[in-house]
Design goal:
Elements lengths: L3 E7 L2 E8 L12 E7 L11 H9 L3 E5 L17 H16 L4 E11 L1 H10 L5 E7 L5 H8 L5 H16 L4 E2 L16 H8 L8 E2 L2 H6 L14 E6 L7 H10 L3 E5 L13 H16 L1
Helix pairs in contact: 2-3
Length: 295
C-alpha cells in the first residue's frame, strides 16, 4: 500500500508524516472516515516497524497519519536525537490538528495510536478531548518512575549509575550522546539482553542508533498514568505480559483508570512487531476493536 508523504509544523519545525488512505467505506459516515494518528516509541521512526500496523488499519477503512517527532527520522529540528517529553506531546497534538484537516476524514473521529513511549503520549493527548473517538496504547510506557524500578531487574546498579552520570553531564555541558540500543553491560538507553537485535530488526533507513543521554531524566518525569482517568472515549491497552521495558503492572493500573479494554500477549516489548510471535494477534485485536467502536 502506497503512502503519501506529508509535512506539518510543530513548534516552528517542519515534521514529516506518511498518510495512508483508508480503503472502502465500512467505517465512513457523511463526515468522512476516522483517522488514526500514529507515533513510535523511544527514538523510533515511521519506517521502523510502524508501516505494517498502518497498512492493516488502512485496509480496514481508517486513514492513518504516521509521523516522526522533531529531531528524529525525516522530521526537521535541532538538536537531533534528543527526547523532550513536552516537545513530543506538542508534536503529537500538532499531528492531530494536521490529520483532522486531511481530505475525506472526519475531524471529530480521531484515533490516537501509540506504542511504547507514545503509548503514554496518547493518554495525555486524549485526556479531556471530545474529538478523540478511540485510543490504542500498545505496550505503553505510562510511568517513568515505575519503569526505573522495573529496570533494576535487568540492569546492574553500576550500569544505571553510569547512564545517570552521562545524563547529568549532558544536561550541564555539551551534549553527551549514547546508543539507543547496545549490548548488555555497555552504555546505552536500552541494554537488555536481546533488545539490540530486536530493535535493529525493525530499524528503517531513517533510524539512527544514537540518543542524548538526558533521556533518563526525561523518562523520570514521564507520568501519563495520572491522566488515564480523564480519557472519555473507548480505549484498548495491549500489554506484553513479559515486558522488560514498559512495566506491565503500570499499564494495567492505567488501563483500569481509563476503563479500557485490555488484551494480554505472552511476549516481551518487541514481540508485537511484524515477524514476531504476537504481531498477528495484536493487529487483529486492533482492527476488531476499532471496527466495533467506530462502526
Amino acid at each position: 500500500m502506497k503512502a503519501d508523504p506529508i509535512t506539518f509544523v510543530s513548534g516552528g519545525v517542519e515534521c514529516a508524516a506518511s498518510h495512508f488512505t483508508g480503503q472502502g467505506d465500512a467505517l465512513a459516515t457523511e463526515a468522512g472516515r476516522p483517522v488514526v494518528v500514529m507515533a513510535h516509541g523511544l527514538a523510533g521512526t515511521v519506517d521502523s516497524g510502524l508501516v505494517p500496523f498502518a497498512e492493516a488499519l488502512a485496509a480496514a477503512g481508517l486513514d492513518v497519519f504516521a509521523f516522526d517527532y522533531r529531531g528524529f527520522g525525516l522530521s526537521g529540528g535541532s538538536p537531533r536525537q534528543t527526547v523532550s517529553m513536552v516537545g513530543q506531546l506538542e508534536d503529537y497534538r500538532a499531528a492531530m490538528s494536521a490529520a483532522a484537516k486531511l481530505p475525506g476524514v472526519d475531524p471529530q473521529r480521531l484515533v490516537l495510536w501509540g506504542t511504547s513511549l507514545a503509548g503514554g503520549h496518547v493518554i495525555s493527548a486524549a485526556a479531556g478531548r471530545s474529538d478523540v473517538a478511540a485510543v490504542v496504547a500498545l505496550t505503553p510506557l505510562v510511568d517513568g518512575l515505575a519503569a526505573g524500578r522495573h529496570a533494576l531487574a535487568t540492569h546492574t546498579k553500576a550500569e544505571m549509575l553510569r547512564s545517570t552520570v552521562a545524563g547529568f553531564r549532558s544536561k550541564l555541558g555539551a551534549p553527551v550522546m549514547m546508543p539507543v540500543v547496545a549490548p548488555p553491560g555497555r552504555l546505552g538507553a536500552m541494554t537488555i539482553e536481546g533488545s539490540m537485535d530486536d530493535y535493529l530488526a525493525i530499524a528503517g533507513p531513517s533510524w539512527v542508533n544514537e540518543i542524548d543521554a538526558t533521556v533518563g531524566m526525561e523518562l523520570g518525569g514521564h507520568r501519563p498514568i495520572k491522566s488515564a482517568g480523564d480519557i472519555g472515549c473507548p480505549a484498548l491497552f495491549q500489554v506484553a505480559d513479559f515486558d522488560r521495558s514498559a512495566p506491565p503492572h503500570s499499564s494495567m493500573k492505567a488501563a483500569f483508570a481509563a476503563r479500557a479494554e485490555v488484551r494480554h500477549y505472552p511476549g516481551d516489548h518487541f514481540d508485537v512487531y511484524a515477524g514476531k510471535p504476537c504481531h498477528d494477534a495484536v493487529v487483529a485485536h486492533q482492527v476488531a476493536f476499532l471496527t466495533r467502536v467506530l462502526g
